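Recall the central idea of this unit: under ordinary conditions, the amino acid sequence of a chain determines the structure it adopts. In this exercise we apply that idea directly, starting from the sequence alone.
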Amino acid sequence: MNSEIVTDEVQQYITDKLGTDVHKILLSKPRFTEVSSKELVEQIESKTKAKAKLPSWFSTKNIYYPNKLNLSQTSSEVTAQYKASLINGKSIVDITGGFGVDAYAFSQKFEQVTHVEKNSALSNIAQHNFEQMGATNINCIASEGLDFLKASTTTFNWLYIDPSRRDKNNKKVYYLADCEPNIVNQASFLFTKTNNVLVKTSPLLDLKIGLTELSNVKEIHIVAINNDVKEVLWLMDKEYNQEPIIKTINFKNSIKQEFSFKPSDEENAISNFSKPQNYLYEPNAAILKSGSFQFIGAFFKLNKLHPNSHLFTSTELIKFPGRVFKIESIYEYSKKSFKKSGIKKANITTRNFPDSVSEIRRKLGLKDGGENYVFATTDLEGKLILISCFRH
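Accordingly, the structure predicted from this sequence is:
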């Protein structure tokens, strides 16, 4: 950590250059003796990204940012606060501390937070930033997370882990057993240090596979922001041996869409089917990730268009955790049929459909955008149809 970066002069320069072409800085003569052009660009790029992702950090003076890769791997402020809302207690240890966004959120709910990060430089950065943000109840330790736990005699109320999803060759991995630390092999040991474990995993992890790898799972939370799934959270309780609850949440502007169910609810649900009626419903990304393709329709008393479409319909309008559309017309999938609509510009979505969006645009001669929405899907009779609708 270069302490010169947080001097007033350098910080002002970084602020002044936000949003500018950083390549000019790299090609120009170094502005400061003790701070390289590369370091300046790193701070400018990361601070620019933090404006939307980490607004509290962005608005705090003298924050020291890591490189873009470390910042891209950290939780957003919204998801960190959501994690912290799920748990509380006297003490928590984050054994994969990183930049410290999650640890800071936990510090608002716990008396004492221990931030463990194996990269000593990143540990120092996190400690500096915690001080700038007034978080005095976080203890930063530069150590391998499991090594710290093995040497510790403390029993914590909660243990938090965000396993690295890259192997030694920096290639992405998709199974928990391939992540670092390997919490599948270490689960028994972890429960000697706490009764409660919170694990953050990639949105790409299959829930069924995750449940075969992890035991004592009490809740699974699928968190999306603006219909983009960001992370999957696993709450593990040492004494819990029943069916987990799957909770989906989608933060959309000021609205929080939530839906919960158990795996058995989905297994036992029976779908009703019909042709498109007056309204069309598309579940949000968190629900689709959860695998609730039957129960979501049964719960809201909606009809499904096709077993594989995951689109629902109704005659009366209901409040629904996803996108809702007013259906205008239905057309066969052909240029001749769709020409009757008079639509030249539309937003296209495909569900259970053989052609891609670009192929559909080319075939129908449609431009992108506008107020019209077209869902390309398959109906109950196996026919390819186009549903023209407007956002409700």
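The chain has a mean pLDDT of 94.
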